[in-house]
Design goal:
Layout lengths: L1 H17 L12 E2 L27 E2 L12 H12 L3 H16 L6 H13 L3 H14 L4 H19 L1 H14 L3 H14 L3 H33 L6 H11 L8 H15 L11 H22 L3 H9 L7 H31 L4 H21 L6 H20 L2
Antiparallel strand pairs: 1-2
């Protein structure tokens, strides 16, 4: 009897924890475990009618009162947890689905039950099922902050499992862009360009970056023009500081840095009490920026022409300039393209070397491939293709070792 009571108490706790009826203010219907009246003198036990003997009657729900709703069948949950404890997770998930379907057939839902189902699905590496239920919790939760946070974290894990890190990073960047957090989105895209491997995702990321830079440039130009218009008038000038700060929150390179500095200087004069009517024009600064931008475009043209080493030299000339960060990111991409192209060339040379009939000719050809791959690895150790280059180099060295060992 003690074991039966413990079983009933466990089931009661599980149901109280799991059941939340969406759209209903009183959602956790209390449980009333069935007990034997002979064991508790002075108390009248609920009816056990319909329960098979000698098994104890499973916990029953109190009749739903006004404003409440029946919860999931306790037997489904009880069996689900039994399967889980026995390591039969797939069967446990099926029982949870059965419990959820039972609620839905009554026009109800349970966000806590969905969370549990999604977490078990993740344990099974079933990203699709986990995504479905985590997304449902995020969409349906109204003010339940704890549930939403847990569901969002789980949803990210499910999508990582389903789509991969590159696709999730791209979606995160899109979300930040939509929220107006452009610098954060730019940072995610830079990381994606450095670490990403999925070609389709990287193409989509480039399109997002171009769209973001275009919109940022348009917004920066409009805000700088508005700031200049205010400074040209009689004031007040407080809004200028807001506009200039907003420009600096946009992705780097999307605004005219020289013009921003000029407007900042003009605003400082007015804000400090000096009302210089003329806008100070810094021709050397403007000319310098134009030269740097031309150099950046030259480097990009060399990348487009697959002249990667020349492009890297042009990018290097932009170090310690206002375009340094942009140049570094694009230089990494150019270096990766160079490593990829040279690695493929090494692969073709390796195939040709193995076809050499003469042992000395084969050895010389293999040594040429070895030098090429070793040079790439030494020059670009941080390339995203470095591991593949190292694997190829190991294969060449094994081939050389076997050749030298043969009589």
């Amino acid at each position: 009897m003690i074991q039966a009571c413990e079983r009933i108490w466990c089931c009661c706790c599980c149901l109280l924890l799991l059941t939340v009826a969406v759209g209903c203010p009183s959602v956790r219907a209390p449980l009333s475990p069935v007990v034997n009246s002979s064991e508790l003198p002075g108390q009248q036990a609920p009816s056990n009618q319909g329960c098979p003997e000698p098994e104890p009657c499973p916990p029953r729900l109190r009749p739903p009162q006004q404003g409440t709703a029946p919860v999931a069948a306790s037997s489904d949950l009880d069996v689900a947890f039994e399967f889980y404890e026995e390591g039969q997770l797939q069967e446990g998930v099926r029982q949870l689905q059965r419990a959820l379907h039972g609620l839905q057939s009554r026009g109800l839902d349970s966000l806590s039950l969905r969370l549990l189902l999604a977490s078990w699905a993740l344990e099974l590496d079933d990203g699709s099922l986990a995504e479905e239920h985590y997304a449902a919790v995020v969409a349906a939760s109204d003010g339940a902050e704890g549930l939403v946070l847990e569901a969002r974290e789980g949803l990210r894990e499910a999508r990582l499992l389903l789509y991969g890190a590159d696709a999730v990073a791209l979606e995160d960047a899109r979300g930040l862009f939509a929220e107006g957090r452009w610098q954060e989105a730019e940072g995610l895209l830079k990381e994606l360009f450095l670490r990403g491997e999925e070609a389709e995702v990287l193409i989509a990321a480039e399109q997002l970056r171009d769209q973001m830079r275009y919109q940022a440039s348009e917004q920066a130009a409009a805000q700088l023009a508005e700031a200049e218009n205010i400074l040209s008038g009689a004031g007040p000038y407080e809004q200028v500081a807001v506009l200039l700060e907003a420009v600096q929150q946009l992705p780097e390179g999307s605004w005219d840095a020289a013009r921003l500095r000029e407007l900042q200087g003009w605003y400082s004069q007015l804000d400090g009490g000096g009302f210089g009517p003329e806008l100070p024009v810094s021709v050397p600064q403007a000319n310098e920026l134009a030269v740097l931008q031309a150099r950046l475009e030259e480097a990009r043209s060399r990348v487009a022409a697959a002249d990667y080493r020349a492009a890297l030299e042009s990018f290097a000339e932009l170090e310690a300039t206002v375009l340094a960060e942009t140049a570094r990111v694009e230089a990494v991409q150019a270096a990766d393209a160079l490593v990829k192209e040279e690695r493929l060339r090494a692969g073709r040379l390796f195939v040709a070397a193995r076809k050499q009939v003469d042992a000395d000719a084969r050895r010389l050809a293999l040594e040429q491939v070895q030098q090429l791959l070793a040079g790439l690895l030494a020059e670009f150790p941080a390339s995203r293709y470095a591991r593949r280059v190292a694997d190829n180099l190991a294969s060449v060295e094994r081939e050389l070792g076997a050749l030298k060992a043969s009589p």
